[in-house]
Structure formats: structure tokens, C-alpha cells
Amino acid sequence: MAKVTFLNPEIFWLFLLIPMAIAWLFWKRNQESATLKISSLQGFKDSSSFMAKLKPVLNILRLLALSSLIVAMARPRTVDVSNKTKTTKGIDIVMAVDVSGSMLAKDLKPNRMEALKRVAADFVEERPNDRIGLVVYASEAYTKTPVTSDKAVILEAIKSIKYDNVLQDGTGIGMGLATAVNRLKDSKAKSKVIILLTDGVNNAGFIEPETASDIARQYGIKVYTIGIGTNGMADFPYAITPNGQFLFRMMQVEIDEQLLKNIARKTEGKYFRATSNSKLAEIYASINKLETTEIKELRFYDYDEKYRPFVWFAGFLILLEVGLRNTVYRSFI
Question: Could you tell me the pTM of the whole model?
């Protein structure tokens, strides 16, 4: 009965009549009982039969029938709700992710890249009605996944992000931004958004970040920029051993925050600084709230009425009581 609802729950107030009905039945029973005054009962043998002792059951049947009718009038029913959603104004989003070696720094746990992958995957799962793409960049950039509504493809692409020397090491913020703009410039979506994440300064690539941000503004693309990394020192990789293991040492964290702020301001976006895992999660949650999608929802209700069994049960009890009163207990009436 956990999924049963009642159309007329106020009917349950009628259960307050049950104590009154019980009191009335006791009063009526006393009124109908004949009395005889005698000086002694010693000459009478107790001969009350088993059926006579069960006569009060008739009143119990009547009360149960009344209770069942009250439940039936409250209209118990279950409902099966099916939703059909239609995105009326969608958003196209491209995440541009820095995959340079510095993203292996351990100021976020277990490192910046793994922390980003977890948060980015949660962000994708919370936007089922938008198209999302993925661009990765270091000194160069390429599209890992074009803008698509297939969330399984995006999630797999995020999961596979790693530092693998496919791209020459360095940080080409302009290259990453320009590549992301190229994925969105022909989009017909209501809103076009780039989430640009980096942990360094622009020191590579042949496209200046300012030029890329100007192009983004011309195409009406909003850019949210995220600088990832703690304040002060962090444990950075600086060399690789012959067996492929990274060597780490403490180094100063350097993020060109002014550049990232300028990109966000120019494109009417916003700049964020992620200094910890929790802060990074909060940033993506904030962007998720800032960029909302209008959805038209059609909801269908399929009701299954459950009052009929209670009516049948009440009818059965009433017929049983009437039958017993006019047959087995007729002599007692």
C-alpha cells in the first residue's frame, strides 16, 4: 500500500463515527434484552449456547462493513506517472581541458587531472538535455569528441583523458579556446558555452588567447574560465625515470588569472579559481545553475482505482450479517 493515494482523504474523518456506532450498538443491545426479577438463580442451570455467545460478532461485521465503505469512499488508487520531455531551447557546451604535464600536480587529490575528470563526469550526467563536446590542449589542441547528445560517448572520452605526450608539452590557452570556438561557431543552439580550464600561463601555440576570445565574442559564445591549482607551492612532476615513473618536487603555482578574467569578461562569462577538490566541484555546480535549459514536460497519469475490493468486502459483510440475523440468530432478535 506504499504507493496508494486517496482522492478524498477527508472522508477518513468519518472514522470518528465508529466509537459512536459502538456506543449505540451497546445501548440498543441493553434495550432489547428482556429482564426478569427473581429471588434466586439456584434452580436454573446455565445453558447459554456457543452460538449465543457469538451473537456480538454480528455487530462486529456491521462495524467492519462501515469501515470498509469509508475506505472505499476515500477512493484509494495507485497512479503510474510517465513523463515525456522535450528540450525547447538547448545549450551546446564544449569543455576545453588543459592536459599538459603540470595537470599531474598533486595539490588536488589524487592529482589535478583525475580530480577534474570526476567533476566533469558529474557535470555531464546532470545535463541530460544538452549537447556537449570535449577539446583537449597542451601546446596544441584537438577535438577529442565533437558536440553530441550521446552522454555515453562524452563520459568515455572524459574517462580516457590522460597525459600521454600526444601533444607537445606546454600551455596553449589560445589554441584550446580557438579549437573550442571552431566546434561551436556553426551551432544553432539558443546558448553556446565554453568551459576553459587551465593550470598555467599561455606559453605555446600560434593563436593568442585575446584573438581567440574576440572570435568567441563575435559568434556569441560565452566562456567560463577556471584556473585550477592551490595558492603557493605544489608537488609538480619535473622528470620521468627510465621505467616511466614521474619524479615530483615542490614548485610555485603560476596561473595567469588576469588573462582568464579578461577572456571571461570579454565573452560575458565568469572566472573561477579551483584551489581544492571541493572548490572545483562547487565551480561546476555554479556553472550548472548559471546555464539552465528550458524544457517542456508532458506528464501522463494512469490511475488504477482500488476502491472496488472494499465495496465488495463491505457488501459481503452486510449480506453475511443479514443472513445470520434471519437464519441462525433469528430467535435472538
Answer: 0.64
